[in-house]
Amino acid sequence: MNENYITVTQLTRYIKYKIDNDSNLDRVCLKGEISNFKAHSRGHLYFTIKDENTRINAVMFAGNASKLKFAPQDGTKVLIIGKVSVYEATGGYQIYVTDMIEDGIGNLYIEFEKLKKKLELEGLFDESKKKKIPKMPKKIGIITAPTGAAIKDILSTIKRRWPIAETILFPSLVQGKEAAEDIVRNINLTKNFDLDVLIVGRGGGSIEDMWCFNEEIVARAIYALDVPVISAVGHEIDFTICDFVSDLRAPTPTGAAEMAVPNISDFYNYLNQIYIRINKSTNNIIKIKKEKLENIKNSYVLKNPLNIYESKEQKFDNLLERLELNIINIINSNKDRLNNLKSSYILNNPELIYKTKKDQYQNLLDKLNINIKNNLNNNTNKYLLLINKLETLNPLSTIKRGYSIVRKDNKVITSIKNVKKDEVLELELIDGKINTKVI
After folding, report:
1. What's the predicted TM-score (pTM) here?
2. Element (H or E) spanning 332, and its range?
């Protein structure tokens, strides 16, 4: 037998490898019902997802399970997202869940994410545009239901922490189809009351109950408001569009009241510290001023004012003497210069200066004439020498002595090697030209 047998482990690992590398199984979206649910002490969730015909094992590890906004149990219909793989120990395939929501509210989550992305791109969540909550508000507006735990918690917290603040309730629907429009109406109404801060919110509930705080009209009304807004919708794990667009998010309505106002006992402590610091600073200033006053009272100036005058008087006398001496020196110096000028050779003999300059001018003129004559003679001699050289080299002078110039085709012949028999040559003589034939 030539069959190659493999182990169960090898087969299981091969199947796991094939499934793990299938991109279609990397992110699978399932809907079904939970059964055999078990929550491990370490936070992991183990259960089965089933429909009318089949089922698949599922596991959700603690990191992802901690993000769930509902308590799963047997019979809960859910929408899950996860990765399909093989658990080698049993050889069974299962889905490793990363996200899970209750079926029936899945569309609401899709709408929530879609609106959130849209408003974020428009800049409605930009942190740089959020307004600061005033430290000591005088007038606080509250938009919530007129009955229920939320309004009681907000009012009692504000009264306890900052009783000097005025609170104005704008009773509003916070649940149902008409709630969003009612909230927007109340937001616009607050513009007439000169508020320092506005709290918008309600107590906890399901996503359907709080959906009015995810409506676009509510988000845009909050964003357009000049007054800073604190969002206080639901519990700490609940997030709405209102939370993102508001200037500050509170985990609960009580938390919103605590964020809106300071604690008056802390304020009293702060005032006491300021009082102590002012007294200490004032006493230090008084002490310093007293010391300066004592120093002035004991100063040499106040005790001996006449001495200062005498000292200045003496200094003035010294300066006056130096000034007078300098004036006399300047006058004497200028007198000496004037006498020197009056007795100078130039002023006494101005005609002699003219005669001297005239003689210098004549000498220069004589030198100039001599140089001109010398240069003219030298250039004349050079010219005659060049004329003689040209006459010597002139071919016409040679012809005058009985010689002739032989040309062929207007070219001078200097050797018999340059002519052939029967060629016609031109002879130039002193008094004309003649043609001859080579024999």
Report:
1. 0.48
2. helix 305-342
